[in-house]
Inverse folding.
C-alpha cells in the first residue's frame, strides 16, 4: 500500500496517486490547485502549513446566476460599474495558509486589486475590476483553488450588516473618564487639599474647585452616554413591573452622581466621581466579557441560508435562464441539476429524481420520484438533472412554512428570567428598606445626617459585584465550552441548560452518524469469485449506496469488467468471464419474496439466482449508550425521529429501558411534542441536527444542533456542538450547573462586602475613600473568584 | 496664573488626543477583527518564492533566497 500523503490536501493518496513535480497528489483536483499556485509564485502556501488545501469540487453551471445584474447588485458591497467590492463567506478558511493565499489573490488575476481576510468571521473582502473579471469568474477562480464561497439566499436579503461597536465606544469613554477622574482625585486621597489648619497642604486648597469640576465634567459622558443602557433597561423593567438588577444599579449611579454634584456645588466634600466612573467602567467590562460570541457561527440561520439564490428557469421557447428564487411563481418550469436543491414544492416533469430529504425529514435514505410525482422543497437531487413545475412560491412551500410559526418570531431570551434578575428583585427590596429604616432612625436622632445616610446606603449597596459575578462566570464558561467545541449562543443559554430536566433527541444525524454506516449480509454465502465481481461492479457505480457498500467490503484485486450497465433508480449489473451479477433493488434482482424490513437493503443476484442482501444499519455515535445511561438518571429522555421504525429494535437495545421512541415525526409534530412537555412545566433540551428539527430547537428552552462540520450548516439554535462531543453532553450540563453554583457563591461574597459597606453607610461615616476602595475591591475579588472557580470546573471537562 | 492650570491643560489634552485616536481606530473597524492582523504581520513579501516548476533546476531556489 502506498502511504504517501497528498501534497495539497494531506489525505492519503491510496492507489490512484498522481505524481507531478516530484510530489504526490490524491486526485486531479489537488494537482490542478498545486499547478495554479506554483505557476503564480504562490507555492509558499505549502511552506506555511503542509497538507492544508482542500480539493476543489466540480461546479459546471452552478454559478451561472452570478451573471444576473440584479443579483450582482445585491451581493456586492460597492458597485460603480467597473470597480466592485464583494464580501464572501468561505467556510473552508481554517489556517494561516488560507489567509496568505487569499490575500495574494492579486497574483492569480491582475484585475483583483485587493483582498482581505477576516479570519474569525471566515470571510474575504475582495476589490476587483469587473471589466477584467466578473463576479462569476471570481467565484469560479476561488472554487478552482479549493476555496468555494458559500452564497445563499441569506446573503441576498441582508447585504450590509454593520457591526455594533457601541459597547466598545462606551467602554472607551468610561475607561478614559475613569482613569482621568482617578488621577484628578489624588489630591483628595492624600488629603493634600484640606486647609493648612487641619494639617493638609495649603497650596492645592485654592485649586480644589478646578479639580472637582473637572471630575464632574468627566463624569457627565459616563453617566449619560456609557451608563445610559442601565437606565433604559431599568425603566423598561419597571414599566413591565419587573425589578431587574439594573434598577439598583441605575439607582446607585443616579444617587452617586446627584450627591457628588450637590457636594461640590455646596462645597460639602469632594464627591464620589471616582467610584461612579469606576463602577460604570467595571460594569461595562463585564458586559464586554459576556458579549463574546463566535462570529464565524450563526445561530439565527433559517432556511434562507440553506437555499440557493437562484435556480435555472426554462422558458417556453426552451431558453434557460437563472432566476432569483424569490421570483419563482406557480407554474414556472425549473431545471434542477445534480446536487442542487429543490427550492419550491412542485411536480416532476422530466427525468428520474432521487431526492435526499435527510435535511428536511431526517429520513436517511434518498427517495425516488418519477414523472408526475410531487417533490418538496428542501430536498437535494442526487441523480442527474430533472425538470419540475413549481406549484407554490418559496415562502409557501411545505418546509418554509414552518418558519411562519410564531416560535420563530419571539425572542427566546425575553422569556427567561436570569438568576441575576431574580436576585436583583430581592436585593432592591432589601436595600430600599434598609435605606428607609436608616433614614428614619437618623431623622429621629440627627436630622442633619439623614439625607447623607440615605444616599450613602444606596451608593454602597449598588450591586456592582453581583452584576459582575454572572457575566464573568458565564462568559468564562462559554469560552471553556468553546474550546471543547461546544459553542453556545450566549451566556443565558448556560443558565437555561443548568435548569433542564427533560432531554429530547433526534435520531438521524444526531445520535447516528451520517458518514459511516454498517451493513450485515443476509442470505446464501457468496463465493470468492462472486465477492470479487461484486466489489468490482460496485466500484464503477457512483450511487451513494454502492459507494457505502464498496467501502465496507474487503479489498479485492481490481479487474476490468467485460460488461457493465447502470439502470437508473434500479441497480447495476456487471459481468466477467461468464459470471454475471445484479446488484440493486429487490425487484431488479428478481426477488419476489415479500416481508422486507423497513431498513435499506441492497439485494444481490448472481447468474440470475437470488443470493441475498446487504442490510444497512444506522451507525450510532460512539458513547451514545453511555450518555443515555448517565442522562436517564437525572433527566426524562425521549427520541423523536422523522425516520421509519426500521431501527426500533436496535435503538431499544442501545437505550435505557422504557425510553419513549417516536417515529415518523414531521417537523410540526416535533414542535408540538416539545410544546406539550412545556405545558407540563418541563424544561426541555432538544438535540437535533437538521432543518426538520428547526421548529423543535426554537421551541425548546435550549436547542442544540449537532454537526459533524460546525462550519457547514446548522439550523437556528442556541448552541452548536461538534458531533464528536455528543458523548460529553451530560458532563457539559453538569458543568453548567456548577457554574450556577459558582455564581451563587459569588453573590454571598459580594453581599459580605455590602454588609461591611452598609455598616459605614448606616452609621453615617462613609468617606469617599472608603467607597473608592470597597467598590473595586469587591468587584476584583468576585471576578478573581469566579475566574479561578470556572477554570477549575473547565479543567475536569473533556 | 498658576502652573497647575498649564499642567492640567497639557495632561487633559494629551489624554483627549489618545481618546480621539481610539475612537477613530474603532470607527475604522480596527477592532472588528482582532485575530487576522496578528497572522498577516508575519507574512513577508520576499517569502513569495519564484516558480518551482518541474522543469526548473535547483539553482532557481538559491536565487529565491537572495530575493
Amino acid at each position: 500500500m502506498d502511504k504517501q500523503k497528498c501534497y495539497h490536501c494531506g489525505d492519503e493518496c491510496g492507489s490512484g496517486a498522481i505524481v507531478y513535480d516530484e510530489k504526490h497528489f490524491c486526485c486531479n483536483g489537488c494537482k490542478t490547485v498545486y499547478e495554479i499556485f506554483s505557476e503564480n509564485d504562490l507555492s509558499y502556501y505549502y511552506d506555511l502549513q503542509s497538507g492544508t488545501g482542500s480539493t476543489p469540487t466540480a461546479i459546471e453551471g452552478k454559478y451561472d446566476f452570478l451573471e444576473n445584474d440584479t443579483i450582482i447588485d445585491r451581493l456586492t458591497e460597492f458597485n460603480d460599474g467597473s470597480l466592485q467590492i464583494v464580501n464572501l463567506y468561505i467556510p473552508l478558511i481554517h489556517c494561516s495558509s488560507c489567509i496568505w493565499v487569499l490575500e495574494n489573490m492579486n497574483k492569480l488575476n491582475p484585475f483583483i486589486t485587493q483582498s482581505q481576510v477576516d479570519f474569525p468571521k471566515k470571510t474575504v473582502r475582495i476589490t476587483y475590476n469587473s471589466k477584467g473579471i466578473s463576479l462569476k469568474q471570481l467565484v469560479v477562480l476561488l472554487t478552482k483553488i479549493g476555496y468555494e464561497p458559500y452564497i445563499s439566499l441569506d446573503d441576498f436579503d441582508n447585504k450590509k450588516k454593520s457591526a455594533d461597536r457601541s459597547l466598545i465606544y462606551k467602554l472607551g469613554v468610561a475607561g478614559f473618564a475613569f482613569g482621568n477622574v482617578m488621577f484628578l482625585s489624588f489630591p483628595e486621597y492624600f488629603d493634600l487639599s484640606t486647609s493648612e489648619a487641619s494639617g493638609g497642604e495649603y497650596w492645592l486648597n485654592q485649586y480644589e474647585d478646578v479639580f472637582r469640576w473637572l471630575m464632574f465634567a468627566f463624569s457627565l459622558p459616563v453617566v449619560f452616554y456609557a451608563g445610559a443602557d442601565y437606565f433604559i433597561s431599568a425603566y423598561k423593567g419597571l414599566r413591565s413591573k419587573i425589578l431587574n438588577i439594573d434598577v439598583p444599579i441605575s439607582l446607585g449611579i443616579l444617587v452617586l452622581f446627584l450627591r457628588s454634584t450637590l457636594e461640590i456645588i455646596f462645597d460639602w466634600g469632594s464627591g464620589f466621581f471616582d467610584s461612579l466612573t469606576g463602577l460604570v467602567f467595571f460594569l461595562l467590562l463585564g458586559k464586554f466579557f459576556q458579549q463574546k460570541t463566535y462570529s464565524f457561527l450563526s445561530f439565527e440561520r433559517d432556511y434562507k441560508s440553506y437555499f440557493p439564490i437562484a435556480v435555472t428557469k426554462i422558458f417556453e421557447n426552451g431558453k434557460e435562464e437563472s432566476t432569483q428564487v424569490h421570483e419563482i411563481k406557480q407554474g414556472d418550469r425549473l431545471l434542477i441539476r445534480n446536487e442542487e436543491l429543490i427550492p419550491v414544492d412542485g411536480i416532476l416533469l422530466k427525468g428520474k429524481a432521487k431526492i435526499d430529504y435527510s435535511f428536511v425529514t431526517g429520513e436517511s435514505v434518498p427517495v425516488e420520484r418519477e414523472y408526475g410525482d410531487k417533490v418538496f422543497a428542501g430536498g437535494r437531487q442526487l441523480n442527474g438533472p430533472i425538470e419540475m413545475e413549481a406549484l407554490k412560491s418559496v415562502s409557501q412551500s411545505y418546509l418554509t412554512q414552518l418558519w411562519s410559526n410564531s416560535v420563530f418570531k419571539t425572542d427566546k431570551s425575553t422569556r427567561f428570567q436570569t438568576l441575576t434578575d431574580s436576585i436583583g428583585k430581592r436585593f432592591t427590596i432589601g436595600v430600599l428598606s434598609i435605606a428607609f429604616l436608616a433614614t428614619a432612625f437618623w431623622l429621629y436622632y440627627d436630622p442633619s445626617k439623614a439625607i447623607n445616610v440615605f444616599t450613602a446606603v444606596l451608593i454602597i449597596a449598588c450591586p456592582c459585584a453581583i452584576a459582575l459575578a454572572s457575566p464573568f462566570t458565564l462568559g468564562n464558561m462559554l469560552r471553556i465550552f468553546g474550546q471543547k467545541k461546544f459553542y453556545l449562543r450566549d451566556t443565558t443559554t448556560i443558565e437555561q441548560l443548568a435548569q433542564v430536566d427533560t432531554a429530547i433527541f433526534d435520531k438521524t444525524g444526531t445520535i447516528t452518524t451520517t458518514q459511516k454506516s454498517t451493513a450485515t449480509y443476509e442470505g446464501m454465502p457468496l463465493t470468492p469469485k462472486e465477492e470479487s465481481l461484486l466489489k468490482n461492479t460496485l466500484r464503477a457505480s457512483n450511487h451513494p449506496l454502492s459507494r457505502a457498500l464498496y467501502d465496507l467490503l474487503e479489498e479485492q484485486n481490481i479487474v476490468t469488467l467485460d460488461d457493465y450497465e447502470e439502470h437508473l433508480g434500479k441497480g447495476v449489473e456487471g459481468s466477467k468471464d461468464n459470471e454475471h451479477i445484479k446488484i440493486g433493488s429487490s425487484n431488479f434482482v428478481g426477488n419476489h419474496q415479500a416481508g422486507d424490513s423497513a431498513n435499506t437493503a441492497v439485494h444481490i443476484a448472481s447468474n440470475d439466482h437470488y443470493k441475498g442482501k446487504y442490510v444497512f444499519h444506522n451507525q450510532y455515535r460512539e458513547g451514545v449508550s453511555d450518555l443515555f445511561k448517565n442522562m436517564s438518571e437525572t433527566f426524562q429522555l425521549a427520541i423523536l425521529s422523522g425516520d421509519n421504525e426500521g431501527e426500533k429494535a436496535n435503538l431499544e437495545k442501545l437505550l435505557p429501558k422504557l425510553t419513549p421512541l417516536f417515529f415518523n415525526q414531521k417537523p410540526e409534530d416535533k414542535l408540538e411534542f416539545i410544546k406539550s412537555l412545556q405545558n407540563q412545566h418541563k424544561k426541555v433540551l432538544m438535540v437535533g441536527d437538521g432543518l426538520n428539527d428547526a421548529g423543535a430547537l426554537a421551541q425548546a428552552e435550549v436547542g442544540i444542533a449537532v454537526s459533524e462540520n460546525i462550519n457547514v450548516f446548522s439550523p437556528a439554535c442556541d448552541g452548536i456542538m461538534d458531533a464528536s462531543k455528543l458523548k460529553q453532553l451530560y458532563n457539559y450540563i453538569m458543568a453548567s450547573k456548577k457554574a450556577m453554583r459558582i455564581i451563587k457563591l459569588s453573590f454571598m461574597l459580594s453581599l459580605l462586602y455590602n454588609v461591611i459597606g452598609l455598616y459605614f453607610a448606616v452609621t453615617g461615616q462613609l468617606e469617599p475613600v472608603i467607597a473608592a476602595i470597597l467598590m473595586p475591591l469587591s468587584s476584583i475579588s468576585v471576578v478573581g473568584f469566579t475566574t479561578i472557580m470556572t477554570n477549575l470546573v473547565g479543567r475536569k471537562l473533556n | 496664573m498658576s502652573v497647575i492650570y498649564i499642567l492640567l491643560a497639557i495632561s487633559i489634552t494629551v489624554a483627549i488626543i489618545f481618546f480621539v485616536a481610539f475612537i477613530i481606530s474603532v470607527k475604522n473597524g480596527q477592532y472588528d477583527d482582532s485575530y487576522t492582523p496578528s497572522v498577516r504581520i508575519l507574512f513577508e513579501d520576499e517569502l513569495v518564492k519564484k516558480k518551482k516548476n518541474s522543469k526548473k533546476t535547483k539553482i532557481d531556489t538559491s536565487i529565491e533566497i537572495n530575493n
